[in-house]
Amino acid sequence: MANWIKALLILTGVCALIILLDTAGDIFDATLNRLADSVPATRASTSASSELWGVVDNPIRSYIARTPPASAALPPTRSGS
Predict the structure, then answer these.
(1) Model confidence over 24-60: pLDDT tens digits?
(2) DSSP secondary structure code for residue 73 in this structure
(3) Are 49 and 58 in contact (CB under 8 A)?
């Protein structure tokens, strides 16, 4: 068999493998999206609740909402000297 035919067959096989891996990735992504959509939504005040930042931001916001402001505990200060 000629070398160019072997190269063509190898290239065709590599292209077919790339297409199959891309399709498998799309199927995996669709499966994960369906799983994420089936989980009930949590109550959140930001649009980033489903992203990584929401994992950090939401507990901080709920802590701030529960905690009274620090300025309420401070005594009033006199203005002037």
Answers:
(1) 999 999 998 888 888 776 665 545 555 666 667 777 7
(2) T
(3) yes
Which pLDDT score, from 0 to 100, does residue 50 have? 59
Q: How far is CA 29 from CA 24, 37, 38, 43, in A?
A: 9, 12, 14, 25
What is the C-alpha separation between 4 and 1, in angstroms, rounded?
Answer: 9
In sequence order, the 6+-apart residues with CB closer than 8 A to the CB of 44 are 54, 58
Number of Cβ within a 10 Å radius of residue 48: 14
What is the distance between the alpha carbons of residues 60 and 57, in angstroms, rounded to a whole number? 5
What pTM was computed for the model? 0.45
